[in-house]
Amino acid sequence: MILRPRLEDFKVIGFYLGRVIIAIGILNLLPLLVALGAGEINVVLDFAISAATHLIYGYALVFLCRTKKEIGWMHGMVVAALSWLFASALGALPLYLSGHWASYLDAMFDATSGYATTGLTLVRDLDHLAMGHNFWRHFMMFLGGQGIVVAALSFLVRGSVGTFTMYVGEARDERILPNIIHTARFIWLVSIVYLILGTLALGIAAIWEGMPTAKAFFHGVCIFMAAFDTGGFAPHSQNILYYHSFLLETITVIIMFLGAINFKLHYALWNGDRKEIWKNIETITFFAAIIFTFALVASGLARNGVYPQIMVMFRKGFYQLISGHTGTGYMTIYAKQFMAEWGPLALLALIVAMALGGCACSTTGGIKMLRVGLVWKALRQDVKQILSPEASIIVEKFHHIKERILEDKQARSATMIMLCYLLFYGAGAIIGVVCGYPLREALFESVSALANVGLSCGITGPSMPGLLKVTYIIQMIAGRLEFISVFALIGFVVAAVKGR
Amino acid sequence: MIHNVPAEGIKNAILGIITEILYALFVMSCAFLVAMVAIWWIK
C-alpha cells in the first residue's frame, strides 16, 4: 500500500525548495553586476527581472509552507529534484529575454545544460551575446557543478541532520566532513581556490596569445568555470578551437582533470595524504580507463590517417577524449568532423569514455570511476568464488581514502546505477532514431546528454525536434542527479495521486 | 586539518594542489606516449 503524502509533507518540501530558490535568486545578482560593469543596461534589467522572479517565488513558498517539521529522506530527495527543475525553468528567464534563443524551451534547454554541466547549446549567434548573459551561462555551470543544493547549504539553508538528505539527493553521496555545512563549504573552498589559480593561468595564456587584458581575464574566468565544473560552454561558438592555442588547451586539460577528481580525494590530498592519489581505486580506474580508451581512439584515428602527426593527434584526439571522459565537452574540432573523419573505432572509444565519466562526488557525469571499479572488484570476487572450494569465503578489498572491504550493498548499488545509465543511454538513442537520425549519431548525442558531457556530433541545434529537446532536458537532469532523486519525485507524484 | 592549523594547512593544501597538477601532467605524458606508439605501430 502506498501512503498518500500529508499536507505537512508538501509544506516541508515547499519550505526548503523556497530557500534554495531564494539562494539562486541572490546569486543572480552577480551576472547583474557583471552587466552593470560592462555598461549593458538592458541586460541589467533582464537579471533584475530574473532575480525578482526567483525571490518572489522563493519567499512565497517559504511564507506559504512555513513549518517546524524536520526534513526527512523522502522530502530531501524530492526537494533536490524539484530544485533542479525550478532552477532550470527560472534560470532560462534572462537567457530568453536576451532574444538569442528561439523559444523558452530552447532557453530552458541551455539553462538545464548549464546547471547540469552538460554543454549542449541551442543559442543563436553566440559570438554577439552580451557579456552579462555569457557570464550567466558559465556561472550556471559553476553553481551546478558544485551543486545548487550545496550552494544553498553553504550560504542560506541552516544546517541540520535532515539537510544531509538534500545533499545526497543531489548525487553527492559522500560526506567529506562530519558536518554537512562544513562539507558544502569545503567543496566551495576547493572550487574558489582553483577559480583564482585557473583564471590567472588562463588569463595570462590568453594575453600571451595576444588578447586584450580585460577580455583575456573575462574569457579566463568563463573558461575556468566551464572547465573545472566539466561543463563545456565557451564564450564563442567555435569553442576552444577559437583560441588556436596549445598553451590554453594544455591548461584546460589540467583544469578538466582537476574537476573530474573526487572532492573527498581533494580533501585527503590537501590535508597531507599525498600518496592517496596513487592508491585510490578511482584514480587507478580513471588512469586505466583513459589510457585504454585513448589507445583505441589513437589506433582508430591513426588507421584512418586522420591526424598523422603526434602533436596534432594529441591536440585533437587526446583533447576530445579527455574532454569526453571528464564530461566537459570542450572541442578543438568542429562537430561534423566526428562523423565525417573519426571512423567507427575512435568514435566507439569516445562514446565509451563519455559513458564512463570521471570520479564520484566530483563535478562530472556518467557512470563514474568508483562504480566501475567496484563492479570490476565484485566481478572478480564472484569469479574467485567459483574457482575456490565451496566452503571458502572470498573477501575483496579496495582503497578509497582508507582500506575497505567490498560489501554486497555497495556492489548492488553500483550495478543498479550503472544499469540505469545504460538503459537511459539506449532509450535516448531510440528516441533520436525515432526523430529520424542515424543510430550512431543518436547514440553519441544521447550518451553526451545523459553523461552531462556536451560533445555534439551535430544533432543538437535550434532546429532539432521538440521531442528530442525535451528528452535531452530530462536526460541531463536525470544524469546529473544520478536517477534516485528523480525516481523519488516520480514516486512522490504517484503516491500523491494513487496513495491512501 | 585545514581549519585548525592555518600555516600547516596552507602548506599541505599547496603541496596537494601541486600533487594534483603533477598527476594530471603524468596522465597527459602517458597519453602522449600512447599516441606515439599508435602512430608508429600503424605506420
In short:
The complex is a heterodimer of chains A (500) and B (43). Chain A is mainly α and 500 residues long. Helix content of chain A is 69%, strand content 2%.
Mean pLDDT of chain B comes to 84
Overall mean pLDDT of chain A? 91
| Straight-line distance between termini of chain A | 8 Å
Count the DSSP helices of chain B: 1
State the low-pLDDT regions of chain B, or none: none
**Low-pLDDT sequence parts of chain A:** none
Describe the structure.
The complex is a heterodimer of chains A (500) and B (43). In chain A, 69% of the residues lie in helices and 2% in strands. Chain A is mainly alpha-helical and 500 residues long. Chain A has helices at residues 7-27, 29-37, 41-64, 73-98, 104-115, 131-146, 148-155, 163-169, 180-208, 213-228, 246-259, 263-270, 276-279, 281-304, 310-325, 335-341, 343-356, 369-387, 408-434, 439-450, 466-481, 484-498; strands spanning 397-400, 402-405. The longest helix of chain A has 29 residues, at 180-208. Chain A has a two-stranded antiparallel ribbon. The mean pLDDT of chain A is 91. Chain B is mainly alpha-helical and 43 residues long. Chain B is built from 1 helix and no strands. Chain B has one helix at residues 6-42. The chains are: A mainly alpha (500), B mainly alpha (43). Chains A and B meet through α9, α11, α12, α14 and α15 of A and α1 of B.
What is the element layout, followed by pairings?
The complex is a heterodimer of chains A (500) and B (43).
Chain A: H1 7-27, H2 29-37, H3 41-64, H4 73-98, H5 104-115, H6 131-146, H7 148-155, H8 163-169, H9 180-208, H10 213-228, H11 246-259, H12 263-270, H13 276-279, H14 281-304, H15 310-325, H16 335-341, H17 343-356, H18 369-387, E1 397-400, E2 402-405, H19 408-434, H20 439-450, H21 466-481, H22 484-498
Antiparallel strand pairs in A: 1-2
Chain B: H1 6-42
